[in-house]
Design brief:
elongated, alpha+beta, 16 helices, CBS-domain, single chain
């Protein structure tokens, strides 16, 4: 062959190698969700690519046969076509043996560089940029190649399958999508500007419903406004005025003996109609939903759906009331301040390195705010107050502090053993260990 014929053949081989490179990377990088959407829109080639992704063995066998065959032919043709010309040129200044060696090396370097650039780097970057479109375009030509190379494909595929069985490996692609995958996609979408930060946070909160217990969203026992069954009309009216809520538990004797609940709308209706209020009236007191304190928020939502209620009393393993929760409480956990923007914030940022945090704040919100992965003994508590109690091994007092993970947690206010405010400060230098300071 002449020099021009050899260069033409090398060009064809580079084009063939680029085709196989694009075929390989586009299939591997194609997203099944995107392909499924294209197939549902009537794209038959997308359906073919989906089937190939389920059993990609024969497809990749053809790719490897093609790439290796082209690489060997490229070396043979390139060496025979370019080496003599490089050798003749170098012999003008060098001895013949040296010129021959350098001519071969120059030919090898040029041909290899051309293959790396035009049959590997460029096509693979292109395939990563638009994988689904390219996978669909090469689907039909690759099907023809698979048919033409069927005997070779069968031979090499059987040997590859035998190796997988020998090492106990699976050759099937695992396309199961986990919650972590979805959250990672949402985070990438937020970084790219496709999702607003609040939208990303809402989606993250939805997935946390399966891990957050009901205690992270409830109104605790000491904040419950309730009525006793034998409360007088005047007492009920005063309680409504002093503590306006939408729902009130009704108890027999004390708060741990809840017999039902009364809706504020029913009470207001009686007030407006100048009717006396008596909680002994069974038509006024509704049956209450009682749930254990170990349920997750998603389980509480399911209970609300089953009984068509939006209010529940939460009890512990000793049948003591520990709090109440409403549908709005659960949704506020998901939506944040989009649902109740006028409620007092549990976490207030004072400056770049300090926060004021309510002791009842769920520990998940504290971790997210501070950028921490975990806190020690996190299986033993659900709130910031619980973290301080576990670390101090007693009920905290004012000025007690805990240092962990580069932050100092200092108790600012305690009301009847309840931790109201905690000052969290970022320490310069990031102390990694834990330290406890008692008042």
């Amino acid at each position: 062959m002449t020099l021009y014929q050899s260069l033409f053949v090398i060009g064809l081989l580079i084009a063939a190698s680029a085709f196989f490179s694009v075929s390989e990377i586009s299939l591997a990088a194609s997203r099944r969700l995107r392909l499924r959407q294209m197939a549902d829109d009537g794209n038959a080639h997308a359906e073919r690519v989906l089937r190939v992704q389920e059993q990609p063995g024969d497809y990749f066998t053809v790719v490897q046969i093609g790439q290796n065959a082209v690489a060997i032919l490229g070396g043979i043709v390139g060496e025979g076509a370019l080496s003599p010309h490089f050798t003749a040129f170098l012999e003008l200044w060098l001895a013949a043996p040296t010129a021959q060696t350098l001519g071969f090396l120059s030919s090898f370097l040029v041909v290899t560089s051309l293959f790396i650039l035009f049959s590997d780097l460029f096509p693979k970057r292109l395939g990563m940029a638009t994988p689904e479109i390219l996978a669909i375009r090469v689907a039909q030509p690759m099907a023809v190649c698979m048919m033409l190379m069927r005997p070779l494909v069968w031979f090499y595929s059987r040997w590859a399958d035998a190796l997988f069985r020998l090492f106990g490996l699976s050759s099937l692609r695992d396309d199961r999508i986990t919650s972590d995958d979805i959250l990672a996609m949402m985070e990438a979408g937020a970084v790219a500007g496709v999702l607003a930060v609040r939208e990303q946070q809402v989606i993250t909160n939805v997935f946390e419903l399966d891990t957050r217990t009901v205690g992270s969203a409830m109104s605790p026992r000491d904040r419950i406004a309730f009525f006793l069954r034998d409360d007088l009309d005047s007492v009920i009216r005063l309680r409504i005025a002093a503590e306006p809520f939408s729902t009130y538990p009704v108890c027999e004797g004390d708060i741990d003996h809840v017999v039902g609940y009364v809706d504020a709308k029913d009470l207001f209706q009686r007030v407006l109609n100048n009717q006396p209020i008596s909680l002994a009236d069974d038509s006024l007191v509704r049956k209450v939903l009682v749930v254990p304190d170990r349920l997750t928020l998603s389980e509480v939502l399911e209970q609300f759906r089953q009984v068509h209620e939006d209010f529940a009393v939460i009890v512990n393993e000793y049948s003591m009331v520990v709090g109440v929760v409403t549908l709005n409480d659960v949704m506020s956990t998901v939506m944040g301040d989009l649902v109740s923007p006028f409620d007092e914030e549990l976490i207030v940022r004072r400056d770049e390195n300090s926060w004021l945090i309510d002791g009842a704040t769920p520990i998940e919100d504290v971790l997210r705010t501070l950028g921490l992965d975990h806190l020690p003994h996190d299986e033993e508590y659900e709130t910031l107050a619980g973290f301080l109690m576990v670390m101090l091994r007693r009920v905290p007092r004012r000025t007690d502090s805990v240092t962990w993970g580069g932050y100092k947690f200092e108790v600012l206010d305690v009301d009847s053993y309840r931790i109201d405010q905690v000052m969290v400060s970022r320490l310069t230098g990031g102390v990694a260990g834990a330290a406890v300071a008692a008042a």
